[in-house]
Write a structure and sequence with these properties.
alpha+beta; 3 helices; elongated; Alpha-Beta Plaits; 4 strands; 111 residues; single chain
């Protein structure tokens, strides 16, 4: 697997329970190889004409680029937000063994 085929997917979640649930479902469905849940993020943002502040949890998923469209739809279906913050980033460089592992663990994904 080349670096060009792998992605980090950043997802802002309302709480750790939601982030863990989404992460587990995505791993079980083989849409991602791994999910990291990072608690304690403070967010400041515009929403419906006002500046808001909230505590959120970051979910970072590792996947293949060809799974991204299905993955994004699945996250939106599982997420509690009207407009989930989902950003996909290319993996520019990484441990070749790790990239191979991502490919192997997502082979059984149902598209």
């Amino acid at each position: 697997m080349s670096n060009a085929d792998t992605r980090f997917v950043y997802v802002a979640c309302g709480d750790a329970i939601e982030a863990r649930h989404i992460g587990r479902v995505l791993v079980e469905e083989r849409l991602i190889a791994c999910a990291n849940v990072v608690d304690g993020m403070a967010s400041i943002y515009w929403w419906r004409g006002a500046v808001e502040e909230a505590e959120e949890v970051v979910l970072i998923a590792k996947t293949r680029s060809d799974l991204v469209p299905t993955l994004m739809e699945r996250i939106k279906a599982l997420h509690s937000y009207d407009v989930p913050g989902i950003v996909v980033l290319p993996i520019v460089q990484g441990n070749p063994d790790f990239l191979t592992w991502i490919a192997a663990e997502t082979e059984g994904a149902v598209l």
